[in-house]
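Key result, reporting period 2: structure in, sequence out.
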């Protein structure tokens, strides 16, 4: 277009205006300013944080629990009791003896199945006793008369170095050294807790290890 063809009022011709409009940059999408990240790919995703579990740095002591049963499926009951003791609050089973069969001593009914477990526990002796009695109740333990047959019998033998004599609890257990069904499984997992002389005194009591 020559100078003589330009409009006198300074306005662009329709063709020039259309060409100028087509040369404008494309508008940006709203809310998406350019960034360096868009050139190098999407930003790396942060790994999800893992939930923190409960702290277990509470002080613990070693304790020993004797387990016995002579009603129903006694072997299954004793094994279930081992697992239930390990599931108690702030308590972990650290050793389990074999199962033993023995004739009732100061009790009635069929032969007993016996065992002993060692635990680390943050419960004090009274708290642990209450928890064990609750497990007996859940297993259907009844006390219709002294020395009655038992679906489950749990005796707290020792709790750290505790020496207790109260209406509800005596530690160490006052008759543990008179019973082969306690001493033999205890000696299996904690031989340092069972004097040889004590074992010698119960050799006449019939007890059979279940293999």
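The corresponding designed sequence is given below.
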């Amino acid at each position: 277009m020559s100078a003589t063809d330009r409009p006198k009022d300074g306005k662009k011709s329709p063709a020039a205006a259309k060409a100028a409009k087509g040369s404008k940059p494309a508008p940006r999408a709203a809310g998406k300013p350019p960034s360096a990240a868009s050139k190098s790919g999407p930003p790396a995703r942060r790994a999800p944080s893992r939930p923190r579990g409960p702290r277990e740095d509470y002080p613990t002591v070693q304790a020993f629990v004797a387990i016995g049963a002579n009603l129903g499926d006694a072997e299954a009951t004793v094994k279930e009791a081992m697992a239930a003791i390990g599931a108690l609050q702030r308590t972990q089973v650290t050793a389990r003896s074999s199962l033993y069969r023995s004739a009732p001593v100061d009790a009635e009914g069929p032969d007993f199945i016996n065992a002993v477990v060692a635990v680390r526990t943050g419960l004090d002796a009274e708290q642990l006793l209450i928890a064990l009695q609750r497990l007996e109740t859940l297993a259907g333990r009844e006390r219709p008369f002294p020395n009655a047959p038992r679906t489950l019998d749990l005796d707290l033998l020792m709790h750290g170095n505790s020496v207790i004599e109260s209406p509800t609890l005596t530690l160490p257990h006052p008759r543990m050294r008179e019973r082969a069904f306690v001493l033999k499984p205890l000696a299996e997992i904690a031989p340092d807790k069972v004097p040889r002389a004590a074992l010698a005194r119960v050799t006449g009591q019939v007890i059979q290890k279940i293999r």
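Confidence is low (pLDDT under 50) at residues 1-23, 29-39, 47-54. The first helix runs from residue 14 to 22. This case is discussed further under Risks and Mitigation.
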